Amino acid sequence: MADEQTDTGRALEALEESRRELESLTYTIAHDLRAPLRTIDGFARALSEDCGERLDEDGRRYLQHVLDAAQRMSGMCEGLLVLARIQCAEFHPVRLELAPICRRAIERLRSAEPQRAVQPVIQEGISAEGDPALLTIALEALLHNAWKFTRDRAPALIEVGVHAGPPPVYFVRDNGAGFDMRYAGKLFGPFQRLHSEREFEGTGIGLAVAARIIRRHGGRIWAQATPAGGACFQFTLPAP
């Protein structure tokens, strides 16, 4: 029995070491790729500005493809860096109120798109135990997701609340585009998208960030939706 426990402990240590090495490698690759990407983007923009008139229609279209690809890759690198930083960030759980965090996030989204008709419904008295900085990032990611996918709704409805436990189940619900539940398993993976970029912009990193934060707290996250019928993202956090 002792030998089995020792072998299990060694296996877990090796697995944890492999995870740390993979995260370090991911961070290094994403960080180091930013410089050549900035160079590609800079020279492509200079070419467009200085020589664009000399290019034919096909040439200008090809150049725009280069610029778009550089921007997408830059966004993906930034997303990988965010994921790595979340895993390495200091963790200081406290008791905090979630409603004020959500209201501030909605106001920031509204200030960027004041023309949108969005009706937020935020339950008062929602509290949780967690790291304030990390939970703020997670809630902002979920609210940004709801804001984006309700773009074609007038008015858009975004609801934040909690179902009594145990354990309490927190939720962010919207009346937006929704998705097919057959593909729900892809939602929380980095760069996984259920809608094309032509429909909704983004790199597909926001939900992965939210999921990593919730899991780091020891909770779990899942979603329910129907196509064109809105989505509801739910998560738990461990009791204090």
Looking at this protein, list some descriptive labels.
single chain, 240 residues, alpha+beta, Helix Hairpins, Heat Shock Protein 90, five-stranded mixed β-sheet, two-stranded antiparallel ribbon, 5 helices, 7 strands, 52% helix, 16% strand, globular
Task: Explain this structure.
It is a single chain. Strands 2-4-5-7-6 form a 5-stranded mixed β-sheet. Strands 1-3 form a two-stranded antiparallel sheet. By secondary structure, the protein is α+β, with helices and mostly antiparallel strands. The chain folds into 2 domains: 2-88, Signal transduction histidine kinase, dimerisation/phosphotransfer (DHp) domain (Helix Hairpins, Orthogonal Bundle); 95-236, Heat Shock Protein 90 (2-Layer Sandwich). The relative contact order is 0.11. It contains 5 helices and 7 strands. Strand 4 and strand 5 form a beta hairpin. Helix 3 (99-112) packs across helix 4.
